[in-house]
């Protein structure tokens, strides 16, 4: 139990250093700074695989699924890559939300900080619930598998341009609870004018990002549970991927158009883990197969996006 306490304490320290020290003064996050932070978070996450090996080899953490240290490391890295890759789709939606509510780059880091803090709490609860379901009901793995296949199909057919945060159900409900201003008041989430407390666009964006992350977790949590049902591996890989989401957003949000084929990579990954769940009791794949499929899918999507020139609209062949 103390391992969990130490890990959560470490996450709190990371968050405190992030907002209280390194980003105390609000500023626009440039690509170079975002790249350095992304490299740091990825290095921390991958370096944590050494901690996973030590914990499972020393028996300091509960091992309900009977994993060997090497297998535990492979499952952790695979789970982390799944969460990191699915976070890319989250970046697309966050960019749309910020654009819809005209959130300037100066305050975007503050919104994402509190959004990720809430996401850690919600995902922790969902992980505990999901692991408990799988351990109690074997058949639930088929439900998760079918849901992931449906999500992959829906992602393949979806059009991102259809999403309008200002027409969402959450925005309409929020307007019923609080008056909403159309102008910002610095980095404040609320403003009091003439005795009335109103929510600023920053708070509206925060709430919609939070709800959106919960919806994304409905995909990502079952996806990582297809790899392992060990609660500590699921939780640690998920949370470390979330911690790197902010810097990854500032790194790739300006290059979203270049990665237009990444969506297909995510479809392949979701479909693969969905099928893996559906046939979990019939076919047992080695851990390196899952790791290879996920890595190759991501690399292929990136290479295709950079190598295949985009057709310009309105051009006619001569």
From TrEMBL:
Keywords from the named record: Membrane, Transmembrane, Transmembrane helix
Any one cellular-component term (Gene Ontology): membrane
Location(s), subcellular: Membrane
Protein name: TerC family protein
Primary localisation category: membrane
Similarity field: Belongs to the TerC family.
Species name: Ulvibacterium marinum
Topology in the lipid bilayer: Multi-pass membrane protein
Sequence intervals crossing the membrane: 6-22, 34-56, 76-99, 111-133, 139-156, 202-226, 232-252, 264-283, 289-308
Entries under InterPro entries matching the protein: Integral_membrane_TerC (IPR005496), Integral_membrane_TerC_rswitch (IPR022369)
Superkingdom in the source lineage: Bacteria
Pfam families for the chain: TerC
């Amino acid at each position: 139990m103390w391992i969990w306490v130490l890990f959560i304490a470490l996450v709190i320290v990371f968050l405190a250093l992030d907002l209280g020290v390194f980003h105390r003064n609000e500023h626009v996050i440039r690509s170079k700074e975002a790249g350095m932070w992304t490299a740091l978070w990825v290095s921390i996450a991958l370096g944590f695989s050494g901690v996973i090996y030590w914990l499972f080899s020393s028996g300091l953490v509960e091992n309900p699924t009977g994993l060997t240290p090497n297998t535990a490391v492979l499952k952790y890295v695979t789970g982390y890559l799944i969460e990191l890759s699915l976070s890319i789709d989250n970046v697309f939606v966050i960019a749309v939300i910020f654009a819809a509510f005209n959130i300037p780059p100066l305050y975007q880091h503050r919104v994402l900080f509190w959004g990720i803090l809430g996401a850690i709490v919600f995902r922790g609860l969902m992980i505990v619930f999901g692991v408990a379901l799988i351990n109690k009901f074997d058949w639930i793995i088929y439900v998760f598998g079918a849901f992931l296949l449906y999500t992959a199909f829906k992602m393949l057919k979806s059009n991102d341009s259809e999403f309008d945060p200002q027409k969402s159900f959450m925005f309409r409900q929020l307007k019923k609870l609080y008056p909403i201003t159309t102008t910002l008041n610095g980095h404040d989430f609320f403003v009091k004018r003439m005795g009335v407390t109103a929510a600023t666009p920053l708070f509206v964006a925060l709430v919609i990002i939070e709800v959106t992350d919960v919806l994304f977790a409905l995909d990502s949590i079952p996806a990582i549970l297809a790899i392992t049902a060990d609660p500590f591996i699921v939780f640690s890989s998920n949370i470390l991927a979330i911690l790197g989401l902010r810097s990854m957003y500032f790194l790739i949000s300006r290059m979203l158009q270049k990665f237009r084929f990444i969506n297909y990579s995510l479809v392949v990954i979701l479909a693969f883990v969905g099928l893996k769940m559906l046939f979990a009791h019939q076919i047992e794949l080695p851990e390196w197969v899952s790791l290879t499929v996920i890595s190759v899918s991501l690399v292929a999507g990136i290479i295709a996006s950079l190598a295949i020139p985009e057709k310009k609209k309105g051009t006619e062949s001569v």
